[in-house]
Write a structure and sequence with these properties.
Helix content: 10-25%
Number of strands: 6
Order of helices and strands: HEEHEEEE
Structural class: alpha+beta
Radius of gyration: 15 Å
Number of helices: 2
Distance between the termini: 20 Å
Shape: globular
């Protein structure tokens, strides 16, 4: 990774999330990702943005194409969105990792034809290479699904 996209560090030594780092890592490491790449013609093309608190956020339109039960977003799509949010949170600090464990809680159905917001954030790092990450999907400002996960740095596998 070039110095131009190397994550800055806080006084604590922890990396500071950055949109430039997120974009550089996503482009290099996830060039055709179904959820977050603009290069995948069949993909969702979500654009995650780093928020002031260090989390990442993206909007998802919940189109009828992704239906499971009538007027309801498919749970597999929800899980993929939550996983991608956590992945992009790690990208924002220059970490390339894979999902080692994912726990999803479906709290209420996600309606179609209304947008949703998906947010991801890093909870804690233990010792390299393990990261604890969380995400949630909300619609009309109500959390409808959330996830927690353990990610392992890809090069550690």
């Amino acid at each position: 990774m070039s110095d131009a996209v190397r994550p800055a560090t806080a006084s604590s030594g922890e990396p500071v999330p950055s949109q430039a780092v997120l974009e550089a890592v996503r482009t290099a490491e996830h060039p055709r990702c179904f959820v977050c790449s603009s290069e995948n013609p069949d993909g969702l093309k979500l654009k995650f943005r780093v928020q002031p608190d260090g989390s990442v956020l993206a909007f998802f339109p919940c189109r009828p194409l992704f239906q499971s039960y009538p007027e309801t977003l498919h749970g597999g799509i929800i899980s993929a969105l939550l996983d991608a949010a956590m992945t992009n949170a790690l990208f924002s600090i220059g970490i390339v990792a894979v999902t080692a464990e994912l726990t999803v809680r479906f709290l209420a159905p996600v309606s179609l034809d209304r947008g949703a917001v998906v947010l991801g954030a890093i909870d804690k790092t233990t010792s390299h290479p393990l990261y604890y990450v969380r995400s949630e999907l909300a619609q009309d400002r109500k959390t409808l699904a959330r996830a927690t996960a353990k990610f392992l740095v890809r090069d550690a596998l």
